[in-house]
């Protein structure tokens, strides 16, 4: 096998989100956020994507696994020690907005929430693990949804800027790497997760989503500007969910359709964040879809001045497109589906496995933007079995990750500037899309089941030891 040459300062680690692992949803002065009212199970997406989601907790009808997560709030020291044992030199995490501002619109932050993250950062520093912090990761305070309508409301820009400024001031000596919004380009597909509102109708969804995105672009740019002022030497990035888009065949109609889908999904947000302006194709798209943005004086200047230092991304799968597809041809995927690709296998959840797509992704992004890239999510959600001797032999996960790390190595050889790699769900946590625990990604098994039962005991999977060797050899040893 080829040995790949990763940079000496390459960042190896893992990634999680506060709402999916912390638990303690009513402790430490935390207010309710969006994730707290999202039901668990395969019904989750159906419920939250239907117009008119009511933001109520109904424990007689649903389970709410995010309320407990995997209890990282109380067990973070042990979990971070396990990350250190694997050799992590970075850890991508998020801060729960409603731990800092329980309602989201307060002037004064919740000190107990700030102190919790101080303790987490101090624990990471003990092991020389560099935090990479997402400011907003699918957990807008519920009050900002019910009282203001989420990101459709321009006032939320100010609340976010105040929140970001509070974080930068508090943690300026502890955090160098920041991300503004998680998977920002997925917002038009599931606006509730990314933009904090349930569409009133399918007809209004596009207008409201693109207006909400505009508000997030302004907020992100303001955060970048403030972060650079308050933390000299800080690196602030955007975060995209990226899926390279293939044409189903060489029919020019399908090729053109795939190009249009590629630009809209993968480049619209990236262009604004990195180039500091809306892409040329945006005006035609707005016109053809009846979208009229309220862009106020100064907005475009703020966006121009607040460009990011690097692009972080999640990569799980590619996307294959056909102009006139039938319902039977549609595949499954992370926010996006497309049609089934006959050349690819798929995970237990129908997500197609395409490591070459990661190499394509990295080359496409670097060719277009010429800024450093950071893969902050990638992984395989799968059913794991605990054997009678307590072992968990997840060779399928090792195979998946190995092939994607090989693709990273090839991209670096291609000339791509790659900063780091933090596979998703380095410890088992609650799935964002289904609220399940059985959809496991981690190197560390957590004894918690979909019905909420379990001891929360942590167990090292076979992949734990494999990834430890990968990190120790800076990506040279990929065989297990």
UniProtKB/TrEMBL annotation:
EC number: 3.2.1.86
One Pfam match: Glyco_hydro_1
GO molecular function annotations of the record: 6-phospho-beta-glucosidase activity
Active site: 377
SUPFAM superfamilies registered for this protein in UniProt: (Trans)glycosidases (SSF51445)
Presence of the UniProt keyword Transport in the record: no
Enzyme class, UniProt record, top EC level: hydrolase
Keywords per UniProt: Glycosidase, Hydrolase
Coiled coil: none
Domain of life of the native organism: Bacteria
Alphabetical list of PANTHER family matching this protein: 6-PHOSPHO-BETA-GLUCOSIDASE ASCB-RELATED, GLYCOSYL HYDROLASE
Family indicated by similarity: Belongs to the glycosyl hydrolase 1 family.
Protein's UniProt name: 6-phospho-beta-glucosidase
Organism: Metabacillus rhizolycopersici
Gene name, Swiss-Prot/TrEMBL: ascB
């Amino acid at each position: 096998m080829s040995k790949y040459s990763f940079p000496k300062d390459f960042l190896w680690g893992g990634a999680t989100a506060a709402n999916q692992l912390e638990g303690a949803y009513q402790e430490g002065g935390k207010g309710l956020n969006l994730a707290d009212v999202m039901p668990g199970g395969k019904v989750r997406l159906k419920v939250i994507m239907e117009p008119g989601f009511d933001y109520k907790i109904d424990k007689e009808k649903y389970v709410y696994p995010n309320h407990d997560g995997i209890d990282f709030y109380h067990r973070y020291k042990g979990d971070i020690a396990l990350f250190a044992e694997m050799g992590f030199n970075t850890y991508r995490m998020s801060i729960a907005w409603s731990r800092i501002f329980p309602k989201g619109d307060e002037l004064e932050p919740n000190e107990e929430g700030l102190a919790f993250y101080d303790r987490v950062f101090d624990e990471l520093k003990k092991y020389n693990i560099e935090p990479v912090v997402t400011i907003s990761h699918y957990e807008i305070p519920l009050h900002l949804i019910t009282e203001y309508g989420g990101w459709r409301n321009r006032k939320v820009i100010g609340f976010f800027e105040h929140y970001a400024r509070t974080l930068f001031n508090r943690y300026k000596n502890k955090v160098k790497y920041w991300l503004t919004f998680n998977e920002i380009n997925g917002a038009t597909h599931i606006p509730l997760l990314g933009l904090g509102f349930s569409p009133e109708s399918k007809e209004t969804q596009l207008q409201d989503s693109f207006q909400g995105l505009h508000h997030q672009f302004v907020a992100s740019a303001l955060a970048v500007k403030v972060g650079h002022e308050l933390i000299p030497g800080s690196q602030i990035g955007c975060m995209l969910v990226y899926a390279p888009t293939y044409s189903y065949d060489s029919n020019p109609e399908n090729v053109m359709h795939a190009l249009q889908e590629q630009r809209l999904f993968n480049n619209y947000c990236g262009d604004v964040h990195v180039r500091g302006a809306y892409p040329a194709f945006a005006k035609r798209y707005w016109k053809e879809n009846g979208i009229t943005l309220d862009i106020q004086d100064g907005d475009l200047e703020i966006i121009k001045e607040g460009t990011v230092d690097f692009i972080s991304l999640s990569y799980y799968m590619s996307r294959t497109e056909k102009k006139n597809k039938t319902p039977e041809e549609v595949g499954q995927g992370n926010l996006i589906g497309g049609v089934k690709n006959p050349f690819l296998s798929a995970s237990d959840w129908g997500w197609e496995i395409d490591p070459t797509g990661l190499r394509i992704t990295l080359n496409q992004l670097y060719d277009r933007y010429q800024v450093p890239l950071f893969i902050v999510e990638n992984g395989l959600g799968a059913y794991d079995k605990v054997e009678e001797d307590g072992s968990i032999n997840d060779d399928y996960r090792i195979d998946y990750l190995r092939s994607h790390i090989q693709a990273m190595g090839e991209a670096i050889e291609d000339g791509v500037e790659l900063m780091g790699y933090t596979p998703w769900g380095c410890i088992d946590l609650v799935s964002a899309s289904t609220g399940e625990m059985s959809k496991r990604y981690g190197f560390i098994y957590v004894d918690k089941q979909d019905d909420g039962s379990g001891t929360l005991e942590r167990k090292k999977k076979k992949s734990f030891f494999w990834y430890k060797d990968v990190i120790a050899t800076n990506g040279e040893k990929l065989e297990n």
